[in-house]
Amino acid sequence: MHDIEVIASAAALVLLAILGRGLYVFIWPYRECRWCRNQHRRRGRRCWRCKGTRLTRRWGAWHAHKIKDSLVRAWQERGAD
Fold first, then answer.
1. pLDDT digits 0-9 by tens, 11-36
2. Whole-number CA gyration radius for the chain
């Protein structure tokens, strides 16, 4: 019985961490570009990663926003019940 409780608490902890990371990435999707952060680029050249904005998306940000869009569309398509 003790093993099941340990496994269940570990699974709950992992799920909580995944949901926390998803919320973090959804709220703050961009980070500073590490490729051009400390470099002074010549005039006329842009960073290939951030395209000159000096910001790039965090890992998982694209997926978090696609999930949000999917949930919003599902909510809107359910109709007035």
1. 999 999 999 998 898 888 888 888 77
2. 20
C-alpha of 61 from chain center: 3
The whole-angstrom separation of Cα 61 and Cα 63 is 5
**How big is the chain, counted in residues?**
81
Give the Å distances, CA to CA, from 26 to 11, 12, 55, 59, 67. 22, 21, 15, 11, 10
Distance CA 47, CA 72 (A): 34
* CB-based contacts of 31, cutoff 8 Å, min separation 6: 55, 56, 57, 58
